[in-house]
Amino acid sequence: MKYIYSLLAIFAISLLASIINPKEGFTCFLEVIPAIIGFLILVFTFKKFRFTNFTYTLILIHCIILFIGGHYTYAEVPFFDYIKELFHQSRNNYDKVGHFAQGLVPAMIIRELFIRKEVISNKSFFNFIIVSICLAISAMYEFIEWFVSLATGDGGDAFLGTQGYVWDTQSDMLFATIGAIVGLIIFSKIQDNQIKNIDF
């Protein structure tokens, strides 16, 4: 539990830092609210289903990515402005980091749930189904961005974060798909080891 408490402390500090004097208050709210909702879900389900420390760590990293994007807006994260200038890019690409994580982290969450709850008996389609679910989550998030932008007008532009890139929606979903695949390739064995050694 000490490790969980450490993650909770980092989460709280990161959330507090993100909401102090953000670039745009409304955008900050839109970006951090998914992390807060996710946090509440994990808290209320903790006694019934506790994830491995590895999966909780990935979730925390994803939350911090959201908090940074919320504080600065995804189009104006300073370090990625530097990268933009250094490599002569046409836009700030921090949002692609967010969408990569949007694929990778849910993939590992779903994977752990599927394994421990024995959701899928035929392992031949295991990874395909996980990646497909992650792509569906990404598409749903693009729908949400679209609806918010339509409903709020200029107020939702920073949340949408296209920066004039006509293929932004498609590339966001591509990065989420790549993130899911990369997560399954790189982290599956680590997650398997933690699942085998669960002691709670």
How does this model look, in words?
- By secondary structure, the chain is an all-alpha fold.
- Helix 3 runs antiparallel to helix 5, helix 5 crosses helix 6 and helix 5 runs parallel beside helix 8.
- The chain is globular.
- It starts with a helix and ends with a helix.
Q: What is the element layout, followed by pairings?
A:
Layout: H1 2-19, H2 25-45, H3 53-72, H4 78-86, H5 94-116, H6 126-152, H7 157-160, H8 168-196
Helix pairs in contact: 1-3, 2-3, 3-5, 5-6, 5-8, 6-8
Identify the notable features of this structure and list them briefly.
200 residues, mainly alpha, 0% strand
Q: What Rg, in angstroms, do the CA atoms define?
A: 17 Å
**Mean of residue pLDDT?**
91
What's the total helix number?
8
- Biggest beta-sheet profile: none
Residues in helices, as a percent range: over 70%
Order of helices and strands: HHHHHHHH
Q: Count all strands and give the number.
A: 0
